[in-house]
Each structure stands twice: as structure tokens, then as C-alpha cells.
């Protein structure tokens, strides 16, 4: 289905949507601080797992650095060696900082260490940044000719926090144009270079999967951190809305944009989240909550956790993906987790989240893109058509989409009262051939979209490989501020699954 037809069907759904009550209020901002008082299960108090937890490369690098077995220079040289070998074929980066600049930063960090100053677990760790997030001194193109040559004058908040923590910013990872898609068509999947890596944070997934960087910071507005994580075999985490700043991120949707975290393991993203969390006066969507130690949720005994298997999320799944996912469910059960089928979200919920979420995100994108009034010919066709259609949406349809958002959020909160989390395949298919991506846009993002729309925490953890050797992701979703629950479940699952490496 072409872009305009798909968009007009979404508008028709907004026309036909009837709120559950006449006075249903719209949810303009997915602020969740008033929706729940906090975590429902004290994960920290749980005993440690009997299974040895899988440690991530970030903590391993930190351990070796503390021992003197490696250094920041060693870490950046290794990343640059991998980039030199794989970047020409995979095209993970839109921009790579100069070797001289990166080595100089690493040497300065090693000098700090030698003087007794270690900034924290990210000291000397190579990190990539999605090319819609500003890094001072590096261009932000947003994957588009529209912003070609743009040089930001200051760092995004998350980049500033990373630099303060001692991370080394390797470069800007490739993205779909303005993050308005779930593919990264200019890049290739490291498991099979004839296939797309997913998107829009595709460059982030490639860089982490291959070791070009140990961590990456991207974004997730509808599915953009979890889809590429699933298709490239990494862990992709979208925190509860408002826990991490989006200041300095090129806007797609003010009320749905999330900062997304990517690493090889749950430990990696927990370490990263410890650095990126916090209220930011430059982002009014951030929440003023006490800092948390996200590593405290890992390597726990999850016996007795109750997880809802969303059966409608299995509809239309590729048989190989479904088989791999079902094996993952059995492994979760072997850890003492109770998995119970649930009919929510329903088929209508998934359809309306996709279509009405499209209305919300693209109308907000169109408003942002009035900053580029004469850029029409510079957009790729798919993006231009989305923005053009969104500019014609009636206010009443946008409001109705926001009213559905409010209703759906309340129903999912109620459903999660009976579960610690939901689980479902992240994507219904593994990585698709690069030339076929247009056929799979909805299929790739279907299971991810609802949770960005309502701001619930969600992550994709590697579930295993198909018989053809392609990764499959399992998505875990929890109520707001129950991020610790899905991190605990992900780290437990990692302890009984294979570490996937392309």
C-alpha cells in the first residue's frame, strides 16, 4: 500500500473513532507521573538468581580498565579497527570523528585514570549517537538533504551527560530520514548484508552488534529503537516517558519522542540509563524523580513473576519467528515465570494504535517541519508524502486520536494490574530483504507502536535465531516506572539464552 493511501486510511479511523465516554479528555502529552504511584514489585529485594547472569562488554571493559589490562586508547583503537573493516559495507555511520581527535580524547581519559580519577562505568567507553541527536562539532543531517551541513552549537543533554561520564562519542549513526520510518535503507544488516537493519535507529544497532561502539543512544517515537534491536540481535530499551531528556533531539513528535538506549545486554543499558536519567529544565517532558540505580534490578530470581502473553501480537507472525519466540517463552517458564495468555491489546487496539498514533506523530512532525518551508524537493518521497498528508489533517481528527490515546492508556494500566509485564514478539518477521522493505513497514512496527504512544517502558531482548540464522527479539512491556521489572526479566532470559553475535 502506498504512503498516501495508508495515511488516508488512518485519517478514516480517526473520523470513525467514538470515545468510550462523551467527556473523554485527550492525552496531549504522554506524561505518566500522575498515572501510577511507582513500582508495584520490589525487584531489588528479590534474591539473586541461581543462574549466572550474562555480563555486558561495558562492565567487562571497566573491569579490565581497573586492572590495567586495557585502556581508553585500547578501546577506541579496537572500535576504529572494526569501523575500518565493516563501515564500507554496512554503512553504520553518517559521520565518524577523526582518529586523531578520538585518540586524543582517549589519552586524556587515560591520564585522568592514571592520576586516580575515574569518572564512572562509562570512562573510556566508545558510544555512537543517532544522527538526529546533536553533538557539538559533528554535523546533524537527520539522514536528509534538508539538514545537510547543519552544525549544532551545543550538545544535546544526553550527549553532555555522556561526555561528563567519560564516554567517547565515536560518531553519528545512520537513521531513516528524520526518523520517519522503521527502516534504514542506506545501511545493511550485519547478519546478512542483503537485508535491512531496521530503523529508524539502524546505524545504532549495527554499531553495537558489531563492536563499532559498545553502546548507542538513539530515539524511539513509534518503534525506532526496538525494531533494529530485534533485527540486529541487540538489546533496545525505551524507558518510561519522561525519565530521559530529549533536549537536543530533532523533533519527530513532541508527545511521543523517547530517548532510546542500545547495548548488547540488559546490564549495558542499565549502566547507560544510570547516566542519562534525570529531570532536565530544557525538556519540560522530563519528570522530577529521585535517581535510580538500574543495575540493582539485574540478575534476580524472577520465580513467581506473572507475564501476560498478548495473543493478538502473534497474529501474522512469520513461522520461523514464531518458533523462535515460543522457544524463548519456554525458557522464561523454566525460570519460574508464569506466562498467561491475554486478549489485550486487541486486534482493534493494535490497528488503532498504529493508525491514530500515525496521525499524532505525523501531525506533530508536520508542525515542526514548517521550519523548512521550501524543502519539499529535498525530502525522500515517502517522508514528503507523510508530511504533506499530515498537514491536511483536521484538528478534530487529531483530537480524536488523542482521546483514543487516553482511553487505551487507562485500559492497559488496568490490564497490567493482573501482570508484572506483557511479552510478545518485537517484530513479526526477521530482517527483510533491502529491496522489499516497503512491504513490511506496518508488520515490522505493529507490536511496538502501542507502548511509545502511551509512554510505557518497553525493551527488545534477543530471543534466539531462526533456522536461517537471523535474530528474533522478544518485547517486554511494563506499567510506568516498572522499568526494573522488564530489566529483571530481560537479564533472567539472557542467562538461559545464547549470546548472539553476527
What key phrases describe this protein's structure?
single chain; alpha/beta; 15 helices
Based on Cα principal axes, name the global outline. globular
Q: Which value, in Å, is the CA radius of gyration?
A: 21 Å
Order of helices and strands: HHHEHEHEHEHEEHEHEHHHEHHEEH
Spatial strand order of the main sheet = 1-3-2-4-6-5-10-11-9-7-8
Structural class based on helices, strands and sheet pairing: alpha/beta
Major sheet characteristics: 11 strands, mixed
Count of strand segments? 11
Annotated CATH architecture: Alpha-Beta Complex
Identify the CATH homologous superfamily: Amidase signature (AS) domain
Average pLDDT level: 95
Helix content: 25-40%
Beginning-to-end CA distance, first to last residue: 32 Å
Which residues form runs of ≥5 with pLDDT under 50?
none
CATH C-level class is Alpha Beta
What is the tally of helical segments?
A: 15
Count of structural domains = 1
Beta content: 5-15%
CATH-derived topology: Amidase signature (AS) enzymes
Secondary-structure blueprint of this entry?
Blueprint (H helix, E strand, L loop, with lengths): L2 H14 L40 H11 L4 H19 L2 E4 L2 H16 L11 E5 L26 H8 L3 E6 L28 H9 L4 E6 L5 H7 L2 E4 L19 E6 L2 H11 L29 E5 L8 H16 L3 E5 L4 H22 L12 H10 L4 H21 L5 E5 L15 H5 L3 H6 L3 E8 L5 E7 L5 H12 L8
Parallel strand pairs: 2-3, 2-4, 7-8, 7-9
Antiparallel strand pairs: 1-3, 4-6, 5-6, 5-10, 9-11, 10-11
Helix pairs in contact: 1-10, 1-11, 3-4, 10-11, 10-12
Amino acid at each position: 500500500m502506498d504512503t498516501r493511501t495508508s495515511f488516508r486510511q488512518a485519517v478514516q479511523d480517526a473520523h470513525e473513532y467514538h470515545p468510550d465516554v462523551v467527556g473523554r479528555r485527550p492525552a496531549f502529552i504522554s506524561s505518566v507521573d500522575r498515572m501510577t504511584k511507582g513500582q508495584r514489585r520490589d525487584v531489588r529485594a528479590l534474591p539473586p538468581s541461581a543462574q549466572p547472569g550474562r555480563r555486558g562488554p561495558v562492565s567487562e571493559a571497566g573491569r579490565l580498565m581497573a586492572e590495567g589490562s586495557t585502556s581508553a586508547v585500547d578501546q577506541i583503537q579496537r572500535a576504529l579497527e572494526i569501523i575500518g573493516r565493516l563501515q564500507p559495507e554496512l554503512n553504520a555511520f553518517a559521520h565518524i570523528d577523526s582518529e586523531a581527535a578520538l585518540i586524543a580524547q582517549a589519552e586524556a581519559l587515560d591520564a585522568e585514570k592514571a592520576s586516580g580519577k575515574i569518572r564512572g562505568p562509562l570512562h573510556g567507553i566508545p558510544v555512537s549517537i543517532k544522527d538526529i541527536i546533536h553533538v557539538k562539532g559533528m554535523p546533524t543531517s537527520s539522514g536528509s538533504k534538508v539538514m545537510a551541513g547543519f552544525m549544532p552549537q551545543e550538545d544535546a543533554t544526553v550527549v553532555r551527560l555522556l561526555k561528563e561520564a567519560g564516554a567517547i562519542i565515536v560518531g553519528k549513526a545512520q537513521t531513516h530520514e528524520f526518523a520517519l520510518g522503521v527502516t534504514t535503507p542506506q545501511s545493511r544488516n550485519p547478519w546478512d548484508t542483503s537485508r535491512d537493519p531496521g530503523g529508524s535507529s539502524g546505524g545504532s544497532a549495527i554499531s553495537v552488534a558489531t563492536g563499532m561502539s559498545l553502546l548507542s543512544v538513539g530515539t524511539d517515537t513509534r518503534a525506532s529503537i526496538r525494531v533494529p534491536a530485534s533485527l540486529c540481535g541487540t538489546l533496545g530499551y525505551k524507558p518510561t516517558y519522561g525519565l530521559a531528556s530529549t533536549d537536543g533531539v530533532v523533533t519527530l513528535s513532541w508527545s511521543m519522542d523517547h530517548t532510546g538506549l542500545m547495548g548488547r545486554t540488559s546490564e549495558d543499558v542499565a549502566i547507560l540509563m544510570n547516566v542519562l536519567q534525570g529531570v532536565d529544565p530544557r525538556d519540560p517532558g522530563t519528570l522530577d524523580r529521585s535517581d535510580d540505580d538500574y543495575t540493582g534490578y539485574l540478575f534476580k530470581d524472577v520465580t513467581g513473576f506473572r507475564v501476560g502473553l498478548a495473543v493478538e501480537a502473534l497474529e501474522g507472525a512469520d513461522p520461523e519467528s514464531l518458533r523462535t519466540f515460543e522457544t524463548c517463552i519456554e525458557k522464561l517458564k523454566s525460570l519460574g515465570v508464569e506466562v498467561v495468555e491475554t486478549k489485550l491489546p486487541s486486534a482493534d487496539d493494535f490497528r488503532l494504535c498504529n493508525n491514530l498514533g500515525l496521525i499524532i506523530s505525523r501531525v506533530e512532525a508536520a508542525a515542526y517541519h514548517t521550519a523548512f518551508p521550501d524543502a519539499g524537493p529535498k525530502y525522500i518521497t515517502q517522508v514528503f508524502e507523510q508530511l504533506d498528508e499530515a498537514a491536511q489533517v483536521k484538528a478534530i481528527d487529531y483530537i480524536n486520536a488523542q482521546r483514543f490515546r487516553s482511553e487505551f492508556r487507562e485500559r492497559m494500566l488496568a490490564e497490567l494490574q493482573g501482570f508484572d509485564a506483557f511479552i510478545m514478539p518485537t517484530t513479526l518477521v526477521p530482517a527483510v530483504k533491502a529491496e522489499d522493505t516497503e512491504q513490511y513497514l506496518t508488520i515490522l512496527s505493529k507490536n511496538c507502536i502501542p507502548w511509545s504512544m502511551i509512554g510505557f517502558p518497553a525493551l527488545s531482548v534477543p530471543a534466539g535465531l531462526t533456522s536461517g540464522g537471523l535474530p528474533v527479539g522478544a518485547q517486554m512491556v511494563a506499567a510506568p516506572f516498572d522499568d526494573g521489572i522488564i530489566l529483571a526479566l530481560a537479564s533472567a532470559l539472557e542467562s538461559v539464552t545464547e549470546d548472539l553475535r553476527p
